[in-house]
TrEMBL record:
Binding positions (Mg(2+)): D188, E213, D238
Mandelate racemase/muconate lactonizing enzyme C-terminal domain location: 142-234
Free-text function comment from the UniProt entry: Converts 2-succinyl-6-hydroxy-2,4-cyclohexadiene-1-carboxylate (SHCHC) to 2-succinylbenzoate (OSB).
Originating organism: Thermaerobacillus caldiproteolyticus
The name this protein goes by in its record: o-succinylbenzoate synthase
Keyword annotations from UniProtKB, A to Z: Lyase, Magnesium, Menaquinone biosynthesis, Metal-binding
Amino acid sequence: MNIKRVTLYHVSMNLLSPFVTSLETVQQRETIIVEVKDKDGATGWGEVVAFSSPWYTEETVKTSWHMLEDFLIPKVLAKEIHHPSDVTTLCSSIKRNYMAKAGLETAIWDLFAKKQGVSLSQLIGGTRSTIEVGVAVGARSIGDCLRQIEHYVQEGYRRIKIKIKPENDYEWLKEIRRHFPTISLMVDANSAYTLNDLQQLQALDEFQLLMIEQPLAADDIVDHAVLQKQMTTPICLDESIVTCEDARKAIELGSCKVINIKIGRVGGMNEAKKIHDLCQAKGIAVWCGGMLEMGISRAHNIALASLPHFTIPGDISASSRYWEEDIIIPEVVVKNGMVEVPKQAGIGVSIHRKRLEEITLYKRTYTAS
Ligand SMILES: O=C(O)CCC(=O)C1=CC=C[C@@H](O)[C@@H]1C(=O)O
Ligand SMILES: [Mg+2]
């Protein structure tokens, strides 16, 4: 493939309701949509999942734009690309900046799959035609949390994740289990604890949680190994795993029993698939994480989650869980807790151009010289 043009769209959409975590409340979702075009006019789409500020990882929308414009796009415009995994190699001299890389790399995966006339799921080795999905609840109060859980359970979501922090964990979970004793329930702490909170964390073992996601520091795998030995609830790592090498080390240390794979956090589909394959070989469970994303990234997530070792429902909720109107056609629909994996070429959805234009604040096209 010869990439001839890359267009970046700086977009912003309001979430239907605020998403509250231990670190930040997200209401306005700003991001970058990436469109790549090759010499034959074929198009691929990607989405950068960095947030407006660096609360989840160090990247932001602005740093991603800078990385794409000044370093990453010039690299893909300058060389012929034979396979999307070439992009990883091509960009490997640029340190980290995984979400910026993933936005561009996933657009090239979509383009490549379209040119091959196969779905992205098929291309990467997906084996499922439907995937089980769960939902993440980031609520302001326990009342709001219970109402949301009730609603999503009725909608058929197969697994509920709630955000916790040291100030409310035990009381909220007690209340949730009183109302919903048997639902598949997990929690995400976004690094709100340290090993000094060991007893408080051990107290959560009584709630039969599917897992606790990222209880300790975002860059830690050592303390998580200490914690996992002293908790029965499986630990799932999110922020700590940004490469397949991180995953290998965490598995060797015993830092987790589960890994949440997010394409954006690990720099693209290539690395995400490598982590999937490693976890499959090592018997570590995986599921596909979400980033409060718009439909393009959601469509890439669906392809990823169709791989055989994704046995736990991912954070891949319906477009309507977050958006008044998504930027893809058709939107992602959840029926009885399941999402269909598109069979059409590439990510298998069209771009809702009018909606994309409506939410675009600024766009710029870069061309090969
Ligand atoms: O996209 C979704 O539906 C869930 C998103 C979600 O839980 C998260 C997205 C981004 C940052 C975090 O707060 C959280 C996570 O850590 O997994
Ligand atoms: Mg998380």
